[in-house]
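Writing this down once: the sequence line spells out the residues, with the fold written below as integer tokens. I am pasting one below:
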Amino acid sequence: MKKLNLFLALLLLICVVISCASCRNTGDSELVDYVGDLKLDMSTESLKQEVTVKAYIDGDTTHFYVPKSVNDTGVLKARYLAINTPESTGKIEEWGKKAAAFTKSKLQSATSIIIESDNNKWNADSTGDRYLVWVWYKTSESDDYRNLNLEILQEGLAIASNSSQNRYGEICMKAIAQAREHDLYVHSQNPDPDYHYGEAVVLSLSELRANIESYNGTKVAFEGIVTKDYNNGVYVEAYDEETGMYSGIYVYYGFNLSSGGLDILVPGNEVKVVGTVSYYETGDSWQVSGVDYKPRKPDDPDNLKKLSDGHSPAYLETTAETFNSKVNRVVVEEGEEVLKEFDYAKLCLGTSISMENLTVTKIYTTTNEDSSSKGAMTLTCKVGDLTVDVRTGVFYDADGNLITEEYFAGKTIDVQGVIDCFDGTYQIRVFSLGDITIN
């Protein structure tokens, strides 16, 4: 009898465990396509406008071309209603790149895109610069429009952002609940394979350049294209969709980087860099140093990493007027966002540009016998009333003769190089004689 009671008790315990496990395993329920259930009603009082994409910013922000009747600038900076995706610009967050890629892929596949207001007017967000909208798209595979805001929630690529307090609040909350139930992406405990989990602050080059003083001594991780190898380091640049500008930095690798690391930091490679921000007083410039590659620890999050290859420097066509201009950028100071004015060249330090029709009016040649730059020149050039300095290396012609001042004096030239700074003056640094064309 005791054995029977023990058997029955064990059987009951097993049933309870199975039952509890079943209760917890709600993620096995069938997924509902709430996006397919929601239809675009063109007869409602909300404003609707067919648009095309100007720029993909991140998972919940896109810039669209619109008629001037919608916005005087012809561009509407759309902030998606009801969702908040992880950041893929500025300071990067887990799943931010995944969310940005998802939004971009859906809009790229669209044959038509319609934005919709939440009521009978276009409403700006708290910044006053972006507008809160619903984004609908359709593809060649269907005549029905799909609500992208809702789809991002349904995929688990965003958390709620006033998701219940809008015209589609009820179905948004259902999509969020389902994504949580199934532990999708931001609702899961799974690691993001595209995210850096080391000690470094993960950010974009745009964020680093605009706020570089605040990152002094900080280990950072960022991605970009290697453009030039120079003096035991490389220049790395990246394009920022939101500002429409390139940002760059000099990465000093020194003399101790392994051969595997050197194979990664090759011009043309897209790379992930992890290193420490520092100010190099001798060169009057900010740089990232302390980069490393451990071949025996290929999964070390602090390793240099090659992401792709086959890229070229941007060599952005730049006028002397733009080079000498000012631009505004939102930065964070003492925990608050403020609009700050920058020299254009300062924000673009370390990026590759090209410039045409520079007339050489003055030349300085380095003559210090102890300097490795002996023979290098600074060409002071004019474009109208504007001045642009061009810094050369030590160059030789095809016969091995040193290029001297007479080669450039009084000439009008086109150049391509990297924006640099020396003694407080911004200049274009060129790395080979082929980077200068005499007109």
Summary: The first helix runs from residue 2 to 24. The radius of gyration is 28 Å.
